[in-house]
Amino acid sequence: MGFGIGDLFWIFLLLSSLQPLWQKRQIEYRRLRALEEFQQQRKSRVILLIHRQESISLLGIPLSRYITIEDSEQILRAIRLTPPDVPIDLILHTPGGLVLATEQIARALIRHSAKVTVFVPHYAMSGGTMLALAADEIVMDANAVLGPVDPQLGNYPAASILKVVKDKPIGEVDDQTVIMADMAGKAIQQVQRFVRTLLKDSMPQQKVSPENIEPIIEALTTGRVTHDYPITVEEATEMGLPITVGLPHSIYALMDLYPQPQGGRPSVQYIPMPYDGGRPGLPTPKGRPLEEPTQANS
User: Region (Disordered) spans which residues (predicted)?
Assistant: First the structure.
């Protein structure tokens, strides 16, 4: 019995619906293989905390991802499953997130007996920086950045709320702002106390000098710059943080397996091989023709 056009249509529809699932399984397999290889190279427990901007597939609405309680539950479990004498390598790519979740992860990291290394291939802002401070060593790409950890109350920096109350006569400040200022002062004190705990804990194993601790706290927590201010490798090193520049190539390969979801036309394209100045005769990667571009996202 032969197939009609209707049968072929349904077969095509079935295969089309299964293709995304097959591609997802393939990428998950490649991620696990790359993660396993990196663990074997480092002889450590490797944990990835990578937050990309996701999109609702039907409506294309971008949704920012950040450190959540679910993240802290998974990372705490991974740390519990790691023997005390096994180092932990945490690969961070995050804009930050919930203070509660961040502090839970950071405390678990500082309690781990073996060395903790944080790798930052692109950026670890806000809560991500706090996790980096919990490490014995921070390894960054030369162009990667950290960020301030000053608390935010709703849409406002805590430091700016305090400044309003300081600069205006108290009789001209509404009750809600006064209440927010009280909360802002407490939030800054809490963050400063926790950052001080992280920095003092790192001293026996890594080189955060005692004289650098208070200046680091002042620079990161008091809101003297905006919350999205990028702290470069050079500035972080000048502060006295234990920064090492230069990531293993394996980390870049891992990041390639966590691409930014595409919502339309790609914004960046390039040929995925070292620049050759247009000289003929150089081999192309894996036989790919030079005319075929590759997409990249930041």
Answer: 265-298
Q: Which residue has the tokens 């802290």?
A: 72
The C-alpha atoms of residue 188 and residue 203 are separated, in whole angstroms, by 23
Q: What are the structure tokens assigned to 111, written together?
A: 């309690």
* Distance between CA atoms of residues 245 and 142, nearest Å: 6
Number of other residues whose CB lies within 10 A of the CB of residue 178: 14
Strand, coil or helix: 55: strand
Residue closest to 119 by CA, chosen among 98, 146, 96, 99: 146
Residue 24: count other Cβ atoms within 10 Å of its Cβ.
Answer: 10
How far apart (Å, rounded) are the C-alpha atoms in residues 74 and 49? 10
Any long-range contacts for 69-77 (C-beta under 8 Å, 24+ apart)?
A: 69/98, 69/100, 69/101, 71/97, 71/101, 71/105, 72/100, 72/101, 72/102, 72/104, 72/105, 75/47, 75/49, 75/105, 75/108, 76/104, 76/105, 76/108
pLDDT digits (tens, 9 = 90+) for 104-121: 999 999 999 999 999 999
Beta bridge partners of 49: 92
**Cβ density class 193-220: b for 16+ within 10 Å, e for less:** ebbebbbebbeebbebeeebbeebbebb
Contact 45, 82 (CB under 8 A): yes
Residue corresponding to tokens 């400063």: 192
Which segments of 141-196 are extended strands (E)?
A: 145-146, 152-153, 156-157
Name the residue with tokens 């944990």. 47
Do the beta carbons of residue 106 and residue 76 sit within 8 Å?
A: no
The residues of the chain scoring below 70 in pLDDT are 1-4, 6-9, 11-12, 15-16, 18-24, 53-64, 202-207, 260-271, 275-298
